[in-house]
Design a protein that fits this description.
about 575 residues; mainly alpha; three-stranded mixed beta sheet; 14 strands; binds the ligand OC[C@H]1O[C@H](O[C@H]2O[C@H](CO)[C@@H](O)[C@H](O)[C@H]2O)[C@H](O)[C@@H](O)[C@@H]1O; glycosidase; Trehalase; EC 3.2.1.28; Glyco_hydro_37
């Protein structure tokens, strides 16, 4: 990674954070003075524009940069606010004079390995219309490719963007920086596009974040240092290795993956739970190191918490940030009383998908250690994945429902070091995450069992004309029906394919076709793939996301290309929705 904007400060603050305990007794990683200042600008913008500014996006303000030193800028800002409020004209003039635009820190870069038609591109796609469209999707990588501008490298303290060394692929729209778990599907697509250098560069960037912060950040911004996102780095590394055979990547990635594994299996992320047979298991949960409003959504979080007491506010802010760590921000999946956002209880849940991802990480670390002949690591991680397999079977599996269910930790257990499993702790509500273990060979090698789980998926109501929905609850939240529509269905599909069950493969292909068609419909309407869809009607998507029209969505590109690579396209099938 390039120069650290705050040389030793971040390290000192992280060390201090281990000892600072807030009222809700979790650790905190303090944010930077620049983020705190820009949050003030954000609050003032909302107050100044009021409801006159359509589509007010709080994130825009913490993505602005400084034109001169923070102290000079803050002085000018304080002077502006001397009477408590400011006119729209004065505020606009201040922003113009002192702050740089939100899109000036990452600049366009042509990906070095992009060619219009890669050799051996999607060999299974024979249908000429689909091939033409797939090449257009492939060319969308160019729209989403960025590198950190020279100004950020020269003056990192003026920016909230973190100075990553290699180019990145961004999700698009208001998400102007690289994101952790989005990068997994982006890389799957880049591999289909044969863009190996771009894919490796992204992985090296994520590794540099582990070197610097001990975990992969939610995204590459100073305000994301206090949380991670679903841990999929090992999957990115193994997928790239399987296609390129690059051992150097493995050598560089392995130490970082070991550090990341520790992050998810120690401190607040680690949970001990004793099952019905008296065996104690170690599992992991999401838990952000933050208990204030998320800087990028501060005005929204304050509004959400406005009716609570101060103690409850602190707790809610922790839950909100922890939910952002899940990647599913927000969903009734994390609420005690959906759709009431103030009842978020993410830190009290042991999630199925997180533990499946960590088991996958353990399997990947074992394989990667074998590649470089590190027998000690391979053998200790073999034990680790076997133990987590037993834990997942014991804590999450529900044989009546034939799926794996999130486990809710009971309040009455809170003061104990080891929680006690109780059948009533399993959340019986259906989410697509209940089927994520299928992605992993240890859970998909028994064809009879896979067929039963597939049956339960098909009966669940989650399989819609647009693919697999995230939940069955219509809460208005982004990760609930009918908005919730997750790229993680790619993992379910991949698991069904690798199970070897004929029936499962047919179901997988059907889901992939639905998903591709929906994205095609979105593309025809907007010239880009879309983040959100109406799961009830293939292709009739709802409204262009929360914050206006999208300009691309990296993970959708990735999943479309990965599905086309696996299944090709049936010759006479139409791309349009039926
Ligand atoms: O700005 C609010 C939140 O935005 C992000 O979450 C959403 O977009 C991400 C980028 O595509 C995606 O990874 C995530 O799953 C989405 O819910 C961000 O990750 C949150 O931390 C942030 O608070």
């Amino acid at each position: 990674m390039a120069k650290n904007p705050f040389p030793n400060l971040i390290k000192i603050l992280i060390i201090m954070s281990n000892t600072i305990l807030s009222k809700d007794s979790g650790p905190i990683i303090p944010t930077t003075p620049l983020v705190t200042f820009l949050e003030r600008v954000q609050q003032t913008a909302l107050k100044t524009y009021g409801h006159n500014k359509k589509g007010f996006d709080p994130k825009l303000y913490v993505d602005l940069s400084l034109k001169q030193n923070l102290s000079i800028t803050e002085k000018a800002f304080d002077k502006l606010l001397i009477n408590g409020s400011v006119s729209v004209k004065e505020f606009d003039e201040f922003v113009e004079k002192y702050l740089g635009g939100a899109d000036e820190d990452l600049v366009y870069v042509h990906p070095v390995d992009f060619v219009d038609e890669p050799q051996d591109f999607l060999p299974r796609v024979k249908n000429s219309e689909v091939r033409r469209w797939a090449l257009e999707v492939h060319s969308l990588w160019k729209n989403l490719s960025r590198k950190v501008s020279d100004r950020v490298i020269d003056r990192p303290e003026f920016f909230t963007l973190l100075p990553l060394k290699n180019p990145v692929i961004i999700p698009g729209s208001r998400f102007r920086e690289v994101y952790y778990w989005d990068s997994y599907w982006v890389i799957r697509g880049l591999l289909a596009s044969k863009m190996y250098e771009t894919a490796k560069g992204i992985v090296y960037n994520l590794i540099s974040l582990i070197d610097e912060y001990g975990h992969v950040l939610n995204g590459a911004r100073a305000y994301y240092t206090n949380r991670s996102q679903p841990p999929l780095l090992s999957s990115m590394v193994i997928d790239i290795y399987n296609q390129t055979g690059d051992k150097d990547l493995v050598l560089k990635a392995l130490p970082a993956l070991l550090k990341e594994h520790k992050f998810w299996n120690s401190g607040i992320h680690k949970v001990l739970i004793e099952d019905a047979e008296g065996t104690t298991h170690t599992l992991s949960r999401y838990y952000a190191m933050w208990n204030e409003p998320r800087p990028e959504s501060s005005t929204i979080d304050k509004e959400t918490a406005s009716k609570l007491t101060n103690n409850c506010k602190t707790q809610l802010y922790r839950e909100i940030a922890s939910t952002a760590e899940t990647g599913w921000d927000f969903s009734t999946r994390w609420m005690r009383n959906g759709p009431d956002l103030t009842t978020l209880a993410t830190t009290s849940i042991i999630p199925v998908d997180l533990n499946a991802y960590i088991l996958k990480m353990e399997l990947d670390i074992t394989s990667l250690a074998n590649v470089i002949g590190d027998d000690i690591t391979a053998s200790s991680f073999t034990k680790a994945f076997q133990a987590r397999k037993r834990a997942i079977d014991s804590i999450f599996w529900n044989s009546d429902m034939q799926q794996w269910l999130d486990y809710w930790l009971s309040n009455s257990n809170e003061s104990k070091e080891v929680y006690t499993w109780n059948a009533s702790g399993q959340n019986k509500k259906v989410f697509c995450s209940n089927f994520i273990p299928l992605w992993i060979q240890l859970f998909n090698s028994d064809v009879k069992m896979v067929d039963e789980v597939v049956q339960s998926l098909q009966n669940s109501g989650l399989v819609c004309p647009a693919g697999i929905a995230t939940s069955l609850t219509n809460s208005g939240q982004q990760w609930d029906f009918p908005n919730g529509w997750a790229p993680i269905q790619h993992m379910i599909v991949e698991g069904l394919v690798s199970s070897g069950s004929e029936q499962a493969r047919l179901v997988a292909e059907d889901i992939a076709v639905k998903w591709i068609r929906t994205n095609y419909a979105a593309y025809k309407k907007t010239g880009t793939l879309h983040e959100k869809y109406d799961v009830e009607k293939c292709g009739d998507f709802g409204g262009g996301g929360e914050y206006g029209p999208q300009t691309g969505f990296g993970w959708s590109n990735g999943v479309v290309l990965a599905f086309l690579e696996e299944f090709g396209w049936p010759k006479d099938l139409k791309l349009d929705c039926p």
